[in-house]
Amino acid sequence: MAHDVAALAVELTEMAAADHESAVRANSDDPAEQLAWRRLTARHGDRLNEIMEEYGWPTAELVGEEAARAAWLIAQHADRQLDVQRRALHLMQQAVSAGSASPRELAFLRDRTLVNEGRKQVYGTQIAGVKDGAPVPWPCEEPERMDELRAEVGIEPFDKYVAKFSMA
Question: How many C-beta atoms lie closer than 10 Å to residue 50's C-beta?
């Protein structure tokens, strides 16, 4: 089992590295590059689903910090596989309740899943676009409480968060 877990940690980390490398293709003007991105994230989503089936949520205790974060990234980018995102969200919620996963990462995955379901997000982590040079979030359930809710899970206030994206 220990060998399997070590191999799993390496596999997750390598998947995240491939994801990071090809993420620039996601919004490419070239349809072939967009398709390559979609194929990669779909393949990774399928594999994450198999991993969750066998191990549950890959926590840091199981696979180490880097591989656990990689699993989260893969779930985050499984945008066309709502079943995978929902399963990851459910398992990750259990892991957060047990103190073995990041509430901050869970918040990002929750928002991403809600937006992919066509619903309003909670924490304002998902950006819909840019208007007048400023990032605009997808609609939020309680926009007036957004920063308060963000603080509860360790996410910086929205204005500070979007400053990272601004085209200054």
Answer: 9
Give the list of residues 6+ apart from residue 127 with CB closer than 8 angstroms, or none: 135, 136, 137, 138, 162, 165
Please list the residues that pair with 134 across neighbouring strands: 131
Question: Which residues, at least 6 apart from 67, have a Cβ–Cβ distance to it below 8 Å?
Answer: 8, 9, 10, 12, 13, 58
- Reference 50, options 18, 81, 96, 14; nearest CA is 81
Question: What pTM value is reported for the model?
Answer: 0.92
Instruction: Give per-residue pLDDT as tens, 4-62.
Output: 999 999 999 999 999 999 988 888 899 999 999 999 999 999 999 999 999 999 999 99
Q: What is the mean pLDDT of the chain?
A: 93
Cα gap 44→104, rounded to integer Å:
22
Burial class (CB in 10 A: 0-12, 13-18, 19+), 113: buried
